[in-house]
Specification:
The protein is mainly α. It contains 17 helices and two strands.
Length: 358
């Protein structure tokens, strides 16, 4: 039996998206070579940013609910932020994943992040070359290299949840993203109001709003009850950041530049178009939500290049604009040749990444 026209269209869509995903990731890896591919020794020296979290992540994998008990009262515990990012270790623990498989899972998340992004862009009419350009700009941004250049960083999962919530036409998938996203990273909740405004700009419906509220309620209630019961993670994180914020605030412009580089052009267009499409009051709410998200993460996270990747959905929003298709090709052609790096910790430390010219 020959496939029906709808089946043929679906197969063609899948083939195009899959092929461009592989090509985009290959170009991204060539442009920004991951500094860590394989490792043989454990524990590795914890002086390297790319491997520093391995002992903590493996302790969390072995005991997701109690790994941090020895550190609860330590105000200098650097991995305090991992306490509530429980979805990856719970899945790894339930499936009895070996450590090397578990720590390599972010690569699977990156494939889904790029592929899902290109899927939604094609559904919105972005042509083949535009998809490739968007894939390269996405793959050479901190949304990709934040997880590909270090071992065990699961940023791609909360970003994938944000992309699904923002662009999926299904309110059920949007609700599912809201249920799972916060358990990957709290940054999902910080960006959710701004992404909700972006979704409202193309799908104004209270149905998915109710689903998003219900989906995030469980996580929010659990965190509030834990805080009332003596959980110190929020207090310790705020106290730690208060002490070091002045050390790295001056490096924010360059660290943010590294996160997207020429992708900032698409991102800025995405923000502007979203604001322009919204009614006046909703537009003001969008501006306030976006500034609140950026302001919050600026203070709460000292790995500033990785953390600002939370704006990734707006890069995709900019990529859908018809007038940007040709300029986007030029930006993507130059992007791989630009020097890249990410800034982390309170000193701050600049970690250079390899590009075609370096």
């Amino acid at each position: 039996m020959t496939p029906s026209p709808p089946e043929t269209a679906h197969l063609r869509h899948f083939g195009i998206v899959a092929g461009l995903t592989v090509l985009s990731i290959a170009l991204s890896v060539a442009a920004i070579t991951p500094r860590v591919f394989f490792w043989r020794d454990y524990p590795l020296p914890d002086i390297a940013f790319e491997t520093a979290r391995i002992p903590t992540l493996l302790a969390q994998l072995q005991n997701p609910s109690g790994w941090d008990l020895p550190y609860v009262a330590n105000p200098l515990f650097g991995d305090n932020a991992l306490r509530w990012r429980l979805l990856p270790p719970l899945i790894g623990h339930a499936l009895h994943l070996p450590p090397k498989i578990y720590l390599g899972l972010p690569w699977l998340g990156l494939i889904f992040l790029v592929g899902t992004s290109l899927h939604y862009l094609r559904r919105r009419g972005v042509p083949g070359l535009g998809l490739l350009a968007a894939g390269v700009l996405a793959g050479t941004s901190a949304a990709f290299f934040g997880s590909s250049t270090s071992i065990g960083y699961f940023d791609c999962l909360y970003l994938l949840a944000l992309v699904v919530f923002t662009f999926s036409p299904s309110w059920i998938l949007a609700t599912g993203a809201c249920i799972l996203g916060p358990w990957c990273d709290e940054k999902f909740l910080l960006m959710l109001p701004a992404c909700a405004c972006l979704r409202w700009a193309w799908q104004p419906s209270w149905r998915w709003v109710a689903g998003a509220a219900a989906g995030t309620a469980y996580y929010s209630v659990i965190r509030l009850l834990a805080h009332a019961g003596g959980d110190s993670s929020v207090v310790l994180q705020l106290d730690m950041q208060r002490k070091v914020f002045s050390h790295y605030v001056s490096s924010l412009p360059v660290s943010w530049w590294y996160a997207f580089r020429f992708g900032w052009v698409l991102l800025a267009v995405g923000v502007f178009v979203t604001w322009h499409k919204l009614p006046r009051r909703a537009g003001l709410l969008f501006v306030a939500a976006t500034l609140a998200a950026v302001g919050s993460i600026t203070f709460l996270a000292w790995d500033t290049t990785r953390s600002i990747a939370m704006l990734f959905p707006f890069l995709l929003a900019g990529a859908t604009e018809p007038r940007l298709q040709r300029p986007m090709l030029a930006l993507a052609a130059v992007q791989p040749f630009l020097p890249a790096a990410y800034l982390c910790c309170a000193d701050p430390v600049t970690v250079p990444l390899t590009s075609f010219l370096r």
